[in-house]
Design goal:
Length: 334
């Protein structure tokens, strides 16, 4: 958490700074969108206006969240984004540890003279004016809750804020299945339920959002599974042609990688997917136990993340990327 001195300074900044931006990473997920909206709604409770800018479109299953329609998508509103960065005098950076995670906005953030406040749970953060970085936290939404609590304003969390925080914690803990889900997490969730969150409604909006196309796409992914039993590893993959033929929409593959971990005896899963527009492979890694996929992704696939959940990329073809992966894990202790 921020120190007492830092919290005092941040509270002062919130009183005097008028142009506040909230940023999150490329391909925003539930934790990114949930934490951004929760912070914006909380600031509004303090009579502080802010704008949320995300690099690109976010999944449809997050559009139900309160005030989600107010999020500015930079790739659609380039002029607004340019002006907003020039005017900004305070920027909250949520759920990303390095400016490279915001892609085309990286240069704008680096050039901005605004004071930058990081709240994030990924390893090895860049330098910011204020940093609340804690890799033991399961979700940035949990950290936003603790930030609100630390400045003595937890009573201002209402039903809308609670739904946003609940969404991020639910999605980033794998519906409370990952080992970073703690007793503290459940205490916070209990408070959010007390504030009005209906778990069945949240789960229905977040998890039960399958289209016919998405179900067919899942079938295609499961049909691709390759098992390397001696390494307790599963490989999943999707080609660009398969994505197009199934009418892929952003967010459709959310959670697919986790199906590999549900296979008996599997401790490590890699999901390789060709990007629709660009010539590279997006990779998701998941693991059980002590196998650190953050280290693995950083070492071999220009990525990173958490101990049991990370991502990466490859500029090789899909076939060559999978072969590279197979060659690498021959020497890994999984």
């Amino acid at each position: 958490m921020f120190s007492e001195k830092e919290l005092s300074e941040i509270k002062h900044l919130l009183k005097i700074k008028k142009n506040i931006l909230i940023l999150t990473h490329q391909n925003p997920d539930g934790d990114a969108i949930g934490s951004s909206l929760a912070l914006q709604l909380f600031l509004k409770k303090l009579n502080i206006d802010s704008a949320i800018i995300v690099p690109n479109e976010f999944p449809k299953f997050l559009k139900w969240l309160p005030k989600a329609k107010n999020i500015i998508i930079a790739e659609y509103r380039t002029k607004y984004t340019e002006i907003a960065f020039k005017k900004a005098d305070l920027i909250f950076c949520l759920d990303f540890n390095t400016a490279a995670r915001i892609n085309q906005l990286e240069d704008k953030l680096n050039k901005s003279k605004a004071i930058k406040i990081l709240i994030d749970h990924h390893q090895q953060p860049d330098s910011f004016n204020f940093i609340y970085s804690d890799i033991t936290q399961p979700a940035t939404c949990q950290m936003i809750y603790k930030f609100i609590d630390s400045i003595g304003e937890v009573s201002k969390i209402d039903e809308d804020i609670a739904y946003c925080l609940y969404t991020g914690i639910l999605t980033d803990t794998g519906s409370f299945r990952y080992r970073n889900t703690t007793a503290e997490t459940h205490r916070i969730i209990a408070h959010l339920i007390d504030k009005g969150v209906l778990p069945d409604l949240a789960a229905s909006n977040i998890l039960d959002n399958n289209t016919t196309e998405k179900i067919k796409l899942l079938g295609t992914v499961l049909d691709s599974v390759q098992l390397i039993k001696e390494k307790n590893t599963a490989i999943l993959s999707l080609t660009r042609e398969q994505l197009k033929s199934m009418g892929y929409q952003k967010g459709d593959t959310e959670g697919f990688v986790n199906y590999g971990l549900s296979i008996i005896g599997i401790k490590f899963v890699a999901f390789f997917m060709e990007d629709l527009q660009n010539d590279f492979i997006k990779i998701s890694f998941r693991s059980k136990g002590n196998f650190d996929v953050n280290v693995f992704a950083r070492k071999y696939f220009n990525g990173g993340g958490h101990i049991n959940a990370a991502g990466g990329r490859s500029d090789l073809s899909l076939e060559n990327t999978i072969q590279k992966f197979k060659n690498i894990i021959e020497n890994e202790n999984i």
